[in-house]
Amino acid sequence: MSKGVITITDAEFEAEVLQAKQPVLVYFWASWCGPCQLMSPLMNSVATKYSDRLKVVKMEIDPNPLTVKQYQVEGVPALRLIQGQTLIESTEGVIGKDKLISLLDSHLN
What we know:
The chain is an alpha/beta fold. It has four helices and five strands, in the order βαβαβαββα. The protein starts with 5 loop residues before the first strand and ends with a helix.
């Protein structure tokens, strides 16, 4: 089980996300995105807190257009909670820690 956020690319998406045994929180970000910088510590915190039942990956949008298009990411930061081939939850824009914890708890408990 992962204890931290894993950086992935389009080429790794299927193996790291779609074939994962547990739900995966995909964090879409961009280096030029100020709000994304605010979300990064929260992603690390969630990856540690939920390491026993959730995998957290991050994907930079600019070099990974295939997954960005497939999951209809229109703005960053964006989150997609995926289990197997199923999109469970989707958000775009900065969300606070309480809202993210509530969202994850509603799907993981």
